From TrEMBL:
Keyword Glycosyltransferase appears in the UniProt entry: yes
Keyword Transferase: yes
Superkingdom of this protein's organism: Bacteria
Gene Ontology molecular functions: glycosyltransferase activity
Domain Phosphoribosyltransferase span(s) in chain numbering: 13-193
Annotated protein name in UniProt: Phosphoribosyltransferase
UniProt xrefs under InterPro entries: PRTase-like, PRTase_dom
Pfam families with a match to the protein in the record: Pribosyltran
Natural source organism: Pseudoduganella rivuli
SUPFAM superfamilies registered for this protein in UniProt: PRTase-like
Segments forming a coiled coil: none
Keywords: Glycosyltransferase, Transferase
Amino acid sequence: MYFSSPIFFDDRLDAARQLAEQLLPLRLHNPLVLAIPRGAVPIGAVIADALQGDLDVVLVHKLGAAFNGEFAIGAIDEQGHVELAAGTDPDSAWVREESARQLAVLRGRRDIFGAGRPLPDPRGRTVIIVDDGLATGATMAAALRATRKALPLALIAAAPVASQEALDLITPLADRVVCLHAPADFHAVGQFYRDFPQVDEDDAIRMVRGRHTAHPIIDRK
């Protein structure tokens, strides 16, 4: 499919550097960067290094439509809270089944990414939730809602590019939104990157496990 939209980023690392340039002047207190895996993990790693903060993942998963699993009808977090797109019936059998499936996936991924570590504690910290782009915004919205419950000092949503629909959804949920581009001609996140390969799961896990959290953590099990 051909898109006439401009390309804003060479790759995820280029996007990460540009985002970090916008976040650095904010002088954020005790920053904790939570990346939405897998695509945002390389971006989160660059930002955490730039801010001298910690890196972990926030685990949310899109809920796919019955007619097309790639079409998002909402998202679920690892506590089981569901964020649905407007017009989606929360009581439908498909939503219940899909939610149960994806919650099981999230719990398995926490075991893999955490390697037995408890979740990082956002309390009293500035938390930056990062994704590589926002199409509907449902996944970021679920991540923001889940993290807000943990009482961060401040909650920032950061993405290189987003649709206006996504920004409208997430802006009330964050204390600040840092987004570099919100083009009108938005079809898919990848159209704004020159190079946008899938991030390998093992690489993402190594990036997260390779960092040691130097701040207090809690076990929410």
